[in-house]
Amino acid sequence: MTILLTIVLGAVGSIIAAELLGLAPILARFLVEQAVHHLPSNQKERYLEEWLGDLDYLRVNRGTIGVIFWALGLYVTSYRLNTALQDVPPLATLQPIMPAVLPADEREYPRIVRFAPSPVFDEYLLEIASHKGFREVAIRALKHIQASPETNPAISYPDEKVYVKYIAPCSFDGLNVPSLWLAYLYIREDRIVYPLFVCEAGRDFPDEQNRFRDEAERKLGKITERAAERIIRHHEH
Amino acid sequence: MGIQPRMTLHTQLVLKVMLTDVNAERYGLEIARQAGLASGTIYPILARLEAAGWVSGGWERIDESKEGRRRRRYYQLTGVGEQEAAAALESTRSWMFPELLGATS
Fold it and tell me: Which of A85, B25, B49, B97 could anchor a disulfide with B54, C-beta 3.0 to 4.6 Å?
């Protein structure tokens, strides 16, 4: 009788365990969805997609119980992520001064220098940033663009999906030459946000400043060509 | 004006992992595992590093229906992040948790 009872209990236990294990992915997904609820509304979709992608991976590679613990960890700490995301400063602190900088007939920005996506952009940003005077502005602006890329664009170009984010006067080679302007843009493609970089040189300044301007334009022109080639290759692949 | 990420021990561990190969694209889970952090710990850190411009994120480019799974998000140090992270780790390495962080180079 005892043996029979043991066999029956063992069989029932196995069935219950199997059922619970089968429910684990559903429970994990539920926990992920609940965790996402704690995040700012403009970040929910992004993190839901990221975490569900991880969940798919974990289900194959870590096993059922591991998935539950992972999802539980996300749920418990999602408040902290919410706080981290709230730390991002509002874009209102930026200076949307592009219209004041360029005359109306230059609004098409024929000499715009564009860099994308991020890794490519950074490489060229550093090349430019190595010049004294650009670095601080460049890094500061980069931080801004990375901080809050989706809200309140100063100017938008719907056809190109390009949005002006930030523009600031900067110096070049140690001279405070207001003829050089640095702008940071981003482009949205699908749901990916690529930062872009723009440098627009001014006009009609004293000869020495014009020399620096011309030098900068030449350099940026070459960099742009190379960046464009890499961007095209990146998108083709 | 800019945001400087807080140099907590966990942040430093994450940066140390990312500095081991600055060109590598890593998933959040992978960074967490290599840094020895729990799943929930990694994302606030990555969010702050992204906000600071030290890390950039991107989506995996796959055909989800063909692969039978969702795309995943990967993270990579930016050029600025590489410089700033190395400098930050170097400045804290000498006095803070040297046994955990080890050499940054």
Answer: B49
